[in-house]
Every structure is written in C-alpha cells, then in structure tokens.
C-alpha cells in the first residue's frame, strides 16, 4: 500500500516538473513573439545557413541510383513483369490486344461469377449485392472503364498482399529489420500520394504498370503491419504443438503460424483492397486507365452528374470487395466428411461452370448481354445535375455570407498571424507542448520534426498548410463531435452514421472540389470546406466507437447513483471515451493533410501547390522534400496524441 | 461505323504500302492523352489513322507537363498538342535535354489570355479594352481582394506572368491562381447563375467557348521583346506590359526514335495539321454531343475523309 502511494506521489511530482518546464518554454515562446520587432532576422525566418539543399541531394542520389548504378534497368525489368500480368487481365477483362487474346469476357458472365463468389462466401444477400453491382456498372455504360480499373487492381492487390506477407514475416523474424522497417512504414503512411508518384514516373514510366506499382506501394504498409501483428500474437502453446508434431521451420510458418494469424492477416487484406480503390483516381495522374481517368476528364468538362455516377461505382466496388473480404475473414474452414463424392464437394463450382456456359452462350445470341455501349446505357446525369444545381441554389445565400465572414474575419487574420509568427517562437511553442505531453523526449521529437521543416526552406508554405489543417480540424471537431454523440445513442443510428462515413470516405475526393468551388469560389474557404468534409469522418467514427465501447458496468454505476443522462455523458462516458476520440482527432489530422494536398487543385499557396509543380516538372527531390515536410507534421501530431492517449488510458485503468 | 472507317482506310493503306520502302514496327505506337477533350479526340483521330495504316496504337493518360519527359525517353511516342503558352517551356526544356524533336506546327493558332463571359460586358460596356476593364475593377472585387478586382489565373505552373502584367500596366487587380482548369470553369459556372461579372484566364480553341460565349480582353498588342525588354510596350520601365501573342503556335512533337521505328506513321505525322474549327469540332463531339472520345474520333474521320485521306495517300 505504501509502495503504491509513493509511486503515485512520484508520478505526480514528475507531472509537476513537466508542467513547470512546459510553462517556462511557453513563456519563452511568448517573449519571442512579443519581441519580434527586436529579434535578429535569423530568429524570425530560418537563416540561409540553416536551409539545406535537401532537394538537390535527393536528386543527385536518384540520378546516381538511376544512371550510375543502373537501377533503372532493374525497376524497368520488374515493371515489365508487372506489365505482362496486366496485359493478361487487360485482355480478359476488356479485350486489350495481348496474349492470351481470349477476352473480353461478356459482362453477364462476370456479373454471375461475382454473384457466385458472394454466395459462396456469405450467402444470398452478398450474392445479390455483388451481382447487382456489376449489373449497375454495365447498365450505366461504365463497363470498359471499370474493367480497366479492375484489371489493374486484380494484379496490384495480390502482389501487395504477397509483398506484405513476405516483409511482415521478415520483420517478425528479425528485430533489426523491424527497427529499420518501422520508421520507414511510419513515414510511408504519412507521405502524401503525389510524393510517391514522381519517383515512380522516373523509374517506371507512365501507364497502367506505373499505376499498378504506385497502388502497390501505397497499399502494402498496412499489410506488413497486420502480418507482423498477427504473427506476434500467435500463442506459444500453438507453436509448441506444431513442434511436437515435428514440423520444420517452413511448415511451422506455413501451416501453424500464418493460419493462426489469419484474422489479422485478413484485416490486412481488407485494408489493401480499400487502399487500392482509394488510389484509383490519384494513380490516373500517371497513366492508370479506367474510372479514375474518366472521372478527371468529366470533371474537367464540368460534367458533375456523370462524375457522380462514376463515384457511385467506385463506392459500390469498394463496399462489395470490403464485404467479400470480410466474409472471407470470418468464414470458418468447411469440414467435409471423408468419402463425400467430388460432385457434392464441388457443387458450387459446377453450378458456376454451368451458369458461365449458359450466359456465355446467351451473350453470343444477344449482344446486349456481351457489351452495353455508352449510347444504349442509362444515365442519371440529368437528375443528378439538377439536384446539384438545386442544392447550390438553396445554399448560395448562406454561403455568400459565410464566405465573406470567414474570409474577412477569420481566415485572413489567422493566416496573417501564422505567417507573422517568428519561426523560433513556433519551435519553442511546439517544444512546450511536447514537454507538457511527454517530457523531454517528446519535446525533442517535436523540435526535430519542425526543425527539419524549417531546414527545407519551405517554412511559409508549411505554415499555410498548418493553418489550413488546424482550422479545418477545429471545424471538423465542431461538426463531428456532436454528430458522433448523437450517433452513439442507439445501435441503428450508429450503423446509419457509420455507413454515411464509409461512403464519404470511399467517394472520390476530387468530386467534392467542384461543388465546393461553385459554392465558395476559388479561395481558402473552399479549401477548408473540402478538407472539413474529409476530416470530420474519422472524428465521427471514433467518437461513436469510443462512446459505445465504454464498459457497461461504469454506466450502470453512474445510473445507480442517480446521474442524469447529461451527467453520465459528460462525467462518465466522455472521459472514458476520450482516448479513443483522440485517436479520431489523430486520424482527422492525417486525413486533412492528405486532402489539403489534393485541395491544391482548387488553388492554394501551401505545400500542395508546390507539390503539384514538382509533379508536373518530374522533380523527384522537391517532391520528396515537400512530401516529407507534410509527413513530419502528421508524425508529430501522431506522436503527441499517442503518448497522451496511452498515458490517459493507463490513468483510467482501461489498459495496462 | 468505326470498323468501316478502318476497313476502307486499310484497303487504301494496303494498296499504297507496296510503294513504301520500310515497314513500320509491329510494336504499338503509344499516344498520350491529357485531360481536355480536344486533345483526347485528336489523339484518337491520329491513332485511328495509324491503325488504318496497319499499325497498332495504344493510349495512355498522362500529365500534360510531365509528358515531355516521357516522350524524351520513348515511353510515349509523340505529343499532338504542344501549346506555345502552356507547354512551350516544358517542351523547350525537354528539347534541350534531347530525345524528342519538333514535327511542325498545326494550322491552328492558339491564344491564351484574360477572358470574360459575355454577360460581363453588360455591367462593363467598355470591354474588351483593357483600360475599360481596369476602370470597372471594383465590379470584380471579392472579399479576399478588398476593393481591387480579382483576376482568376490558371495554376502557377502554367507560368503566365499575370502578376507582372498587372504591375507593369498599373492595374487595379489582384491575381488569384486557381489550382486546375476545372476550378476556372467551376467559377464561370457559378458566376453564370447570377450573371456576376468575372474575368479569368482562358484559351482558344477550347470547349468553354461553346458553353459560355465570351471574349478576350484586348491588351496592348504583343510585339517581339515585350516580355524581355522594358523599352518595348507602353510602359518604358517594365517588361510584360502587353497581352499574350494572339497567334501562338500549336506544335506536334515526337520521340527521336519514331522516325526509324515507324517510318510510315512518322511521315503521316509530319503532314498532319488541324485548324481551329476542326479542333473545336472535335471538342464539341465530346463535350456537347456526349460521344465517347473514340467514337467521336471515328465520327470525325468519317465526316472529314477529304482532309485526312491525302495525308495517308501521299505518305507512302
């Protein structure tokens, strides 16, 4: 007992010291800010000696890799291999003139195949959903584009899963490899997509193969992480049993460890599929054909209705693949009696083969079952456009005022203030925050991340990004938090709100940009508006999850002591859910950082705009430096929130 | 319909191929497409002409600035729309590095400059003169520009020097850069609802002309040296005190290896030349008539045999 109390006392004392240091640092930041007038120039903006030519170094390094080491031959050979696979799927799905020259497969055959897979994995409902998704695609005249997209995903996703398994297993085997891999994965997952694309253009070129490779790079990190997590969680008893059965190391991995880690690995598979679909539009910047490319063309011609149709298709595909992979994850291996005849064991396969034959035959007789041309297709574009016009017309008076108010009274002053701040004051302030949250180590981490940003020479632009993201996350909290509380009240509400969240998240973000400009014009309000739409999603999701997962016993205890609903919410449920909600805030920051880069297509003066320039001039060094600057912001927030949430969880006794 | 065009052209190609010296490689000719409709249709038109000669063709969508790097490396074979204003610098840079070359100009001329939709003229009747525009600057004011007018320019990487022009001519305008062409059109579409006056960056030939009729602002006429020599132009102490050239080039570019690998296709490419109305027609087929680009190209080829057949016949 005494030991416990001294321990608590010790923790308190440490907390006090931490706060004192943080206060001192905060005062220092304040002094630097107030005294800006008398500060030497070198403390206001990073002096010339501090700005290092990272971009040139990276470019020199890449030139060396490419030309002197001849890495380009290796990457191109790998790309040719990928291209060979892509050609096969492209031929089968949309009849590209390549080996094996069998395709295109009629749409009705693919739809029935999808339905059968759905039935096999989960039952009638998934069968209907999967089949109807492809019917929708065909009837809307999007067949060819969708097949172009799928032909890449079908190659990229399995390769990504395979690579993820290999790297994940290697990381699990060797602590050294894990130490190298972990920071790389952290950076990779917070690096904006465009930063990846420039080196891919240089090393691989453009076209479907580049699209596939960018998709693989983007989708592999979660797979590696989940594989590693799954393997680490395998109970020693299971491995012991494998040993006793005399399994070799490889057999142990193949037949014992990996199957036991099945759940985590399949979550990874699901993540890979979702990430692949998220890349559909972005990868078309470097030549991935299909839905994404079409979407950008339609947006360029201001055809909102038809772009929304494509957006719906992407969401349907995502939901379908998500459901299928989840069904696969939860499906238990079937146990079949010995001696069951081949026919019965494979009856679904037979039904499928017969159906394929029937539909293939039918499609030869009725061409409409083979291919539906764009001319014969349905379109929802007109009602969608009309609806869009109506929404904009109704909102217009409000947004005109809002636009004026936000720009004149909030955004411009905020932005000017951010740009006015001496960089030294910002650094010291971040150290204060770091120290308050996690002591000296966190303070140094904050300093390192933002110090590096200062050293890139993009300080002003980085500050504009910080200002946009901060304000957007603030607004997203104002919207997402109450919505999350409202949504957590009942199971059915929660499910409805989460469904909307999923849809918003998979709907291609580029489509939001046009209506947002129509409402607000080309300015920061439009940028913030687009970012908020995205940033609110994780906040709502985690608020709901946090509130719904509060232990029932705690709530009952509160009810018994006569607390009102409001009291229970504010004094019991929210504090207990706060660590989870903060994970939502963390995600929200990440989403904002991704979206703010895409919002450069509206028109910004931040890092995103420079990133766009780097992409169009294929400047690898500049692109990576800018990408890293964005990643560092994300990583700093991630670090602070993780440290804080862990401490909080411990204090609440939620986890050890 | 498309097959018919190809068939008839294939007959032609076969009959003329006997006269050619070298065979084209059977590897596909890779044609890049970008995100505006005239370029996509033109690429398919040329691609279908090549196909009619027995070549295989593939299309790949790429960024319109980064494409020159790809042409240079031979990843894509050619580029059909090199706009002087928009892509001149990227093209010149790639040209200097080597690997691609200029295959001549189209008849079409391009113009890129400040532009307004026609309803703007109602509230500012002195247009298209630039001084009249400057006099109505406050009509174009927005919250972020205060009482100065706002000019919505293209993305910064298009390097239009609008700010320099505003300074050189002492205009009462603030330049705001949109992030993409879509953002420009979205502004015009939004302005149309309440007929709000706007002045944006625009170019011709372009599908927007068909959706929203309008005019270019007439700045002091461009003359050689205006962008480099302060003495040229109305302001003796500043550069960029003039409009953009009203007749910029529209070039074709090709990978250096194309000439040897596909000699027949290359000789056709040399002859290909489109005019402004032809390009506008291609864009219209997609943007207004809602054809898919490949169908639009087939349609165009069918209706304009007189234009493209001589290129193929004379080529062999």
Automatic annotation (TrEMBL), chain A:
Gene3D superfamilies cross-referenced by the UniProt entry: MetI-like
Organism superkingdom: Bacteria
Molecular function (Gene Ontology), one example: amine transmembrane transporter activity
InterPro entries from the UniProt entry: MetI-like, MetI-like_sf
Segments forming domain ABC transmembrane type-1: 146-325, 462-641
Matching PROSITE patterns: ABC_TM1
Family named by the database record: Belongs to the binding-protein-dependent transport system permease family.
Name recorded for this polypeptide: Glycine betaine/proline transport system permease protein
Organism, as annotated: Roseovarius litoreus
Organismal lineage: Bacteria, Pseudomonadati, Pseudomonadota, Alphaproteobacteria, Rhodobacterales
From TrEMBL, chain B:
GO cellular component: ATP-binding cassette (ABC) transporter complex
GO molecular function, one term: transmembrane transporter activity
Keyword Protein biosynthesis: no
Signal peptide: 1-22
Record key words, sorted: Signal
SUPFAM superfamilies: Periplasmic binding protein-like II
Statement: the UniProt record of this protein carries the keyword Signal: yes
Domain ABC-type glycine betaine transport system substrate-binding: 28-303
Stated name of the protein: Glycine betaine/proline transport system substrate-binding protein
Organism of origin: Roseovarius litoreus
């Amino acid at each position: 007992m005494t030991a416990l109390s001294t321990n608590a006392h010790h923790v308190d004392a440490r907390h006090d010291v931490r706060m004192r240091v943080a206060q001192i640092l905060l005062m220092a930041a304040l002094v630097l800010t107030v005294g800006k007038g008398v500060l030497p120039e070198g403390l206001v903006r990073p002096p010339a000696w501090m700005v290092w030519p990272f971009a040139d170094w990276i470019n020199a390094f890449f030139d060396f890799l490419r030309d002197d080491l001849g890495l380009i031959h290796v990457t191109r050979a790998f790309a040719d291999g990928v291209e060979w696979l892509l050609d096969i799927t492209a031929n089968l799905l949309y009849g590209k003139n390549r080996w094996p020259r069998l395709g295109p497969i009629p749409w009705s055959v693919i739809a029935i195949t999808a339905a059968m897979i759905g039935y096999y994995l989960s039952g009638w409902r998934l069968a209907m959903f999967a089949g109807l998704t492809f019917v929708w695609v065909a009837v809307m005249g999007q067949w060819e584009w969708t097949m172009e997209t799928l032909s890449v995903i079908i190659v990229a996703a399995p390769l990504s899963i395979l690579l993820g398994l290999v790297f994940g297993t290697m990381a699990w085997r060797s602590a050294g490899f894990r130490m190298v891999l972990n920071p790389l994965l952290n950076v990779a997952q917070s690096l904006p997509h465009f930063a990846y694309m420039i080196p891919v253009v240089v090393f691989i070129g453009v076209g479907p193969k580049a699209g596939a490779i960018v998709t693989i790079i983007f989708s592999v990190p979660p797979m590696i992480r989940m594989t590693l997590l799954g393997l680490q969680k395998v109970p020693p008893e299971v491995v012991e049993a494998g040993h006793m059965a005399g399994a070799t190391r490889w057999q142990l991995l193949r037949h014992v460890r990996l199957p036991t880690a099945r759940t985590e690995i399949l979550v990874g598979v699901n993540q890979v599929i979702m990430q692949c679909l998220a890349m559909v539009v972005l990868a078309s910047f470097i030549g991935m054909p299909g839905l994404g490319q079409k979407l950008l063309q339609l947006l360029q011609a201001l055809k909102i209705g038809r772009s929304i149709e494509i957006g719906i298709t992407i969401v349907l595909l995502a939901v379908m693949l998500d459901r299928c992979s989840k069904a696969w994850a939860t499906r238990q291996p079937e146990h079949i009696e010995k001696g069951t005849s081949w026919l019965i064991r494979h009856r679904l396969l037979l039904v499928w083969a017969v159906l394929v034959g029937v539909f293939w035959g039918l499609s030869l007789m009725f061409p409409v079952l083979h291919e539906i041309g764009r001319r014969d297709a349905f379109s929802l574009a007109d009602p969608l456009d009309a609806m869009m016009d109506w929404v904009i017309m109704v909102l217009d008076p409000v947004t005109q005022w809002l636009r004026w108010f936000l720009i004149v009274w909030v955004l411009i002053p905020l932005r000017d203030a951010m740009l006015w701040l001496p960089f030294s004051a910002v650094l010291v302030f971040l150290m204060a925050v770091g120290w308050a949250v996690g002591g000296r180590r966190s303070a140094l981490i904050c300093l390192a991340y933002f110090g590096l940003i200062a050293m890139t020479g993009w300080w002003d632009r980085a500050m504009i990004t910080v200002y946009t993201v901060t304000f957007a996350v603030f607004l997203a909290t104002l919207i997402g938090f109450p919505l999350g509380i409202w949504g957590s009240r009942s199971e059915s509400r929660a499910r409805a709100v989460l469904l909307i969240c999923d849809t918003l998240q998979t709907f291609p973000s580029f489509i939001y940009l046009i209506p947002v400009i129509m409402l607000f014009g080309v300015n920061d309000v439009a940028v913030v508006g687009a970012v908020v739409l995205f940033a609110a999603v994780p906040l709502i999701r985690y608020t709901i999850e946090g509130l719904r997962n509060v232990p029932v016993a705690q709530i009952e205890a509160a009810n018994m002591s006569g607390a009102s609903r409001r009291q229970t919410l504010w004094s019991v449920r929210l504090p207990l859910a706060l660590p989870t909600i903060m994970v939502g805030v963390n995600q929200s920051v990440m989403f904002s950082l991704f979206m703010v880069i895409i919002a450069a297509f509206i028109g910004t003066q931040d890092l995103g705009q420079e990133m766009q320039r780097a992409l169009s001039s294929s400047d690898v060094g500049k692109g990576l430096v800018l990408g890293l600057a964005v990643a560092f912001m994300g990583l700093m927030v991630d670090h602070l929130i993780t440290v804080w949430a862990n401490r909080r969880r411990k204090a609440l006794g939620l986890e050890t | 319909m498309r097959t018919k065009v190809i068939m008839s052209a294939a007959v032609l190609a076969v009959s003329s191929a006997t006269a050619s010296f070298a065979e084209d490689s059977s590897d596909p000719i890779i044609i890049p497409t970008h995100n505006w409709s005239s370029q996509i249709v033109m690429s398919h038109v040329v691609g279908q002409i090549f196909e009619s000669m027995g070549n295989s063709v593939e299309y790949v969508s790429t960024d319109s600035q980064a494409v020159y790097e790809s042409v240079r490396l031979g990843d894509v074979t050619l580029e059909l729309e090199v706009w002087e204003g928009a892509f001149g610098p990227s093209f010149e840079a790639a040209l200097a590095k080597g690997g691609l070359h200029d295959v001549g100009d189209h008849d079409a001329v391009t113009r890129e400059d400040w532009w307004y939709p026609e309803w703007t003229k109602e509230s500012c009747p002195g247009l298209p003169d630039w001084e009249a525009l400057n006099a109505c600057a406050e009509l174009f004011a927005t919250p972020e520009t205060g009482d100065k007018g706002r000019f919505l320019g293209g993305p910064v990487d298009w390097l239009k020097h609008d700010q320099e022009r505003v300074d050189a001519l002492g205009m009462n305008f603030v330049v705001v850069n949109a992030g993409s062409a879509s953002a420009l059109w979205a502004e015009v579409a939004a302005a149309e609802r309440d007929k709000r006056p706007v002045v944006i960056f625009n170019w011709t030939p372009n599908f927007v002309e068909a959706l929203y009729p309008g005019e270019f602002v007439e700045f002091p006429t461009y003359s050689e040296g205006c962008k480099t020599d302060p003495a040229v132009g109305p302001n003796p102490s500043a550069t960029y005190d003039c409009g953009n050239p009203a007749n910029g080039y529209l070039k074709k570019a090709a990978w250096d290896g194309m000439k040897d690998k596909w000699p027949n296709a290359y000789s056709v490419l040399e002859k290909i030349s489109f005019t402004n109305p032809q390009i506008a027609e291609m864009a219209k087929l997609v943007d207004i008539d809602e054809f898919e680009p490949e169908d639009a190209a087939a349609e165009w080829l069918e209706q304009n045999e007189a234009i493209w057949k001589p290129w193929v016949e004379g080529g062999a």
